[in-house]
Amino acid sequence: xxxxxxxxxxxxxxxxxxxxxxxxxxxxxxxxxxxxxxxxxxxxxxxxxxxxxxxxxxxxxxxxxxxxxxxxxxxxxxxxx
Length: 81
Known about the structure:
The chain is mainly α. The protein is built from 4 helices and no strands. Helix 1 packs antiparallel against helix 2 (30-48) and helix 1 packs across helix 3 (60-71).
């Protein structure tokens, strides 16, 4: 369990980032890749500028890694192979 109490909206944004990243890795349609890249940029800004980071000064890099580890879930398609 993480020692950090991440807000739900931050957890959701990080999970959405991973979802968009996986979709982008598999997408072949150029117009859709543009949409997914923009989505990743928007989510990256939302995650990086979230007010939560100001509540843990000096420990933000460790907390960011904990957020990534907590929200990372194997791609269901990959685990079936």
